[in-house]
Amino acid sequence: MWLNYLKIAWRNLRKQKVFAFVNMIGMSVALCAALLLSLTAYQQWSYDNFHENRDHIYQVYEEEYKANRIAKSMSVPDPLADVLRKEVAGVKYVTRVSNDNLPVRYGNNHYYFDIQMVDNDYLKMFTFPFVKGDPQNALQQLNQVVLTEKTAASLFRNEDPVGKTIEVNLQGKWRPFIVSGVAAALPDNSSISFEMLTRFENIPMYAELKNRWNESGYPVFMQLEPNVTTAAFDRQIKPLVHKYFAENIAELKKNGGVPDKNGELLVLKTISLNDFHLTPGNTYYSGLNQFYPWLMLILAFMITAIACINFINLSVARSFTRSNEVGLRKALGAQDKQLIFQFWSEAFLLCCFAFVISILLTCILLPHYNRIFRHRLTLGLFQHGWLLLSIVVGFFTITLLAGGYPAWKVSRLNIISVLKGKQNFSSSNGMQRSLIVVQFVVAIVLISCTVIIGQQLKFVQSAPLGFNSTQVISIPVDNAPVTAVTAMRSKLLMESEVTGVTAGQFNLGLGKDGSSGRWMRSFDYKGHSVGTQCIEVDYDYASTLDLKMVAGRDFSRDFGADTTCVVINELMAKQLGEADPIGSLIEMDDRRPLRVIGVVKNYHYESLHKKIEPLTISLAKPVDLSYIFVKVNTANPAVTIKKIEGMWKTLNPLSENAPSFLDENTDRLYRQEKRFSKIFINGAVLAVLISCMGLFAIAVLVMAQRKKEIGIRKVLGASVGSIVMLLAKDFLRLVIIAVIIATPAAWYFMQRWLKGFEFHVNIHWWVFAMTGAIALIIAFLTVSMQTVKAALANPIKSLNRD
After folding, report:
1. Phi, psi dihedral angles at 598 (to 5 degrees)
2. Span 637-642, average pLDDT
C-alpha cells in the first residue's frame, strides 16, 4: 500500500514539474542552511568534550571588591598553586600556564613555535592523546618538551623525535631540551592550543615570582576529586584567602572597598572547563559569546520554518487545482485517511529529494562556509550518533509539518461542493495569511538587524580613536634580539617615507600575531586608592602615534631621569585629584617613586566595547619591547609595508608575523560582529527569497479564486491598474502588519546587542521605516507578477465556466 502511494505521488510530481521544482529548491536551500548552522552550533557546544576529566577541571580566578567597581583578574599569584596542592583537600592536580612564541632550532631547521609552559600535572589533567611517549611522565624533568605531530614533522621531517635534543631561545640564550613525547594533532574543538609543552619553571623570573603574593602572574587550573563540589572547595579556600591575601584585603578595606553579600573583599572563584569556549573574556582560553550557538539554532529554525510555511502555502495553492480529483476519489469511496496518506506521501517524496540535494549542497558549500565565517567544520561531525539522530528526527518533523496540514486540509473538502464546482478555500485564508505574516516578520527582523549591525560596524571603523591608525604600521618583534630592533630603527629612519619610529610592550588593536594586552595596577595615592592600566613604551611614542599632549611633555632622550617618569592620560590625572598633576610622585610598587611629566589626551587603546580607563605610560627596557611602530607618509601603502616587511626579514629571519597597519589591527577587534553581520545578511536574503515564494503561492490561489470577479470588473470598464491595486492591497496589508510586529522585536534585540559596546550608534526610526518600505516593495513586485497577469487576461476566458 505504502509503495503504491509513492508511485502515485511520483506520477503526480512529474505532472507538476514547476510546482515540484519550486518547492524542492526552496526546501533544499533552507535545509542546507539549517544543516550548516546546526553543525556550527553542535561544534561550538562540543568544545573540550574530549577531555576525560572535563567535569572536574576549573580555572581559579580572583575578584576584588573595590570602592567603585569589581576588579576581576584571571591571573593569580604563583605560590597559590602550591597552596592548592598542599592545603586544600580534594584538589587532585594543579597547573600554572604561560604562553610564549619562542625561537626553536634543530640542526639547520629554525622556527617559532607557540610554547606552553606548564606544571607536571598538566598532562594528567587534560586528555591529549600521544602518538609517541607516555603523557604521565613526559614532563617529569625541567629540560623535557612535548611536541605536537605537526611541530615534530617541521623540525625532524621523517626522524623519530623522541630522545632528540632541540634548542629553545629563552631570554636571548639557547638552551637544550630533550623531546619526551609527541602529542596527536589537537582536535578542532579544543579551546587549548599549543605547539610545544615544557615545564613552568622555565619561565623568566620564576625564582622571583614563585613566592610573591602581591603580584598576579599567570592563570592557575586545578582538577577536583570526583566527589568534591565547587561549594566544598569555596568553603575550604575562604580561610586561606584571609591567610595569604591579608595585605590585599587590608588595603581594600583601607581604600573603602565595598564587601560582597557574604562580607568578603577578596574572593577566589572558579569557572569550569565546560564553560571555557563560550565565556568571552572570562578565562585564559576565552572564546565566543555564549549566545552564538543559540543564534545559529534560532536562524536555522527561522529559515526552516519559513521554508515549511512556503511549502504549505504552495501545496494548498496546488491542491485547489486538484479539487475535482479529490471530489471524484471521495465519491468513489476513498476515505479521508487514504487521501491524507496520498497527499502526505507526495510531500514526503518531495522532502526526501530536497534533503538529498541539501546534503550535496552542504558538502559542496562547506569549505566556502568555513572560509567566510571562520569555522572549522568537517563532514566527520556526521559520525556523531546524537547529531545524526537529531537530523533524522528533525527531517521527519519537517515533513509532517510541511506535508501534514495541506493533506489534512484537502481531505476535509466537502464532496458535494467540490463536484458542483462551489469549493471555497476562504476558510483556510486566515491560516495562510497568518503564515505569510510570520514569514515577513522574520525577514523584516533580519533585515533590520543587518542594517543596525552594519551601522555599528561602520561606526567603530570610522570613530576617532585618538591616535593615528591609518599611517602607522605595527611590526611584531617576535623575540628578536635587541640589536635587531635597534638596527631596524636606524634603517627605517633613513627611509624617505618614514616620518617616525617607536616601540611598545603591547600592540594597539589585534595584530596578525593574534596578541593584545594590558595590565592593571592599583596603589595608594595620598590616602585614596588609585587603579590604572599600564603600558611600557619607547621614546617618540606620542609623536609617532599622534597622541595629543594636553599638559607637560613626552619622554625625551635629553632627560636621563625620564626612566623614572610617567606620562598619564586625562582620566588618570582626574583620578589623582591634582589641579596640576605635572611633577606629582606616584608609588606603584616597592621601587622608587615615579614622577608625572606629561598628560596625554584620552585615546581608545582598547576596543569600543570598553570605556576608556585611567592609563599610565612608562619607559620600557629594550628587552621588553614587543612591537615596533612605524609612521609613514606614502602614496602606496601596500608597496611600503612590503618593503618594511622585507627589511625586517633581513634583520630577523625567524620572524613569522607580518607587519600590519593599525587600522587593520583595530578592525580585527570586531571579527565576531562581522561574523554576526554576514550571518544576518545571508539569513535575511534567504528569508526574503523564500517568503516571496510563499507570497507568490498565495497570489496564485487568490487569483484562481477571483478569476470570474476580475473578468466581470474588466467587462464593466475597470482599468488594469485599478485591478492590480485592488488585488495587491490585501497582500500589502499583511506586510504592514508584519512590519508593525517586527519593529519592536528588532529594536529590542538590537538594543540588547548594542549594550555590549561602551560606544555605539543610536537606533533611529528611519531604519525600520526603510526596512518596511523595502519589504512592501518586494511584496508588491512579487504579487504583481500574478495580479498583472490576471488583470490582462481575456475576460471571456475568465467568465467561461471550466
Report:
1. -160, 155
2. 90
Tally of CB atoms within 10 A around 591: 8
Strands 109-118 and 196-199 turn out to be parallel
* 160 and 266 in a common domain: yes
Residue 47 is placed in which grid cell? 568544545
Q: Which residues pair with 60 in a beta bridge?
A: 220, 270
**Any idea of the CA torsion for 382, 383, 387, 389, to the nearest 10 degrees?**
110
pLDDT confidence bin for 427, thresholds 50/70/90: very low
Give bridge partners of residue 176 from the DSSP assignment.
Answer: 167
Helix/strand/coil percentages in the chain, nearest 5: 50, 20, 30
| Domain end (from 668, 692, 723) | 668
Counting Cβ atoms within 10 Å, is residue 427 exposed (0-12), middle (13-18) or buried (19+)?
exposed
- Taking the C-alpha atoms of residue 248 and residue 251, their distance in angstroms, rounded to an integer, is 5
Same domain flag for 34 and 81: no
What per-residue confidence (pLDDT) applies to 672?
Answer: 72
Q: How many separate domains does the chain show? A: 3
One-character DSSP codes across 465-519: -SS--SSEEEEE-TT--HHHHHHHHHHHHTSTTEEEEEEESS-SS--TT-----E
Which residues contact residue 322 at a Cβ distance below 8 angstroms, ignoring those fewer than 6 apart?
410
Based on the domain organization, do 206 and 121 belong to the same domain? yes
For residues 436 and 698, the answer to whether their CB atoms sit within 8 Å is yes
Q: Do both 88 and 204 map to the same domain?
A: yes
**Nearest residue to 571 (alpha-carbon basis) of 519, 611, 521:** 611
Give me the mean pLDDT over the 68-88 stretch. Answer: 85
> Grid coordinates representing 245?
591575601
> How many C-beta neighbours within 10 Å does residue 125 have?
22
Domain closes at, from 602, 634, 668 = 668
DSSP 793: S
Rounded Cα distance between 17 and 350, Å, is: 11
Average pLDDT in the 84-101 region?
A: 90
Whether residue 101 lies inside any domain: the answer is yes
Task: Look at 328-337, 394-403, 724-733, 745-754 and tell me which has the smallest mean pLDDT.
Answer: 328-337
For 21, 40, 369, 371, the CA distances from 376, given in Å and listed in that order, are 32, 9, 9, 8
> What is the C-alpha separation between 206 and 18, in angstroms, rounded?
74
Q: Domain limits at 66?
A: 54-275
Residue 564, all three cell numbers: 623614572
Bridge partner residues of 100 (DSSP): 115
Quote the CA–CA distance of 710 and 715 in Å, as a whole number. Answer: 9
Same domain assignment for residues 96 and 182:
yes
Q: Give CA–CA dist 584/565, Å, rounded.
A: 10
Whether 758 maps to a domain, the answer reads no
Let me know whether 12 and 82 are in one domain.
no
Beta strands in 679-799 (DSSP E): none
Residues in Cβ contact with 753 at an 8 Å cutoff, skipping those fewer than 6 apart = 453
The CB-based long-range contact list for 42-45 (8 Å cut-off, 24+ gap) reads 42/293, 42/381, 42/384, 42/387, 43/188, 43/189, 43/375, 43/376, 43/377, 43/381, 44/277, 44/278, 44/288, 44/292, 44/293, 44/296, 45/278, 45/293
Write the CB contacts of 465 (distance below 8 Å, at least 6 apart in sequence): 603, 604, 666
In this structure, the answer to whether residues 98 and 235 fall within a common structural domain is yes
pLDDT tens, 119-159? Answer: 999 999 999 999 998 988 899 999 999 999 999 988 888 88
Q: How many residues does the chain have?
A: 802
State the cell numbers at 313. Answer: 502555502
Same domain, 37 and 177: no
Q: Identify whether 731 is part of a domain.
A: no
- φ and ψ of 138, to 5 deg: -75, -20
In a domain, 93, yes or no: yes
C-alpha cell of residue 198: 615544557
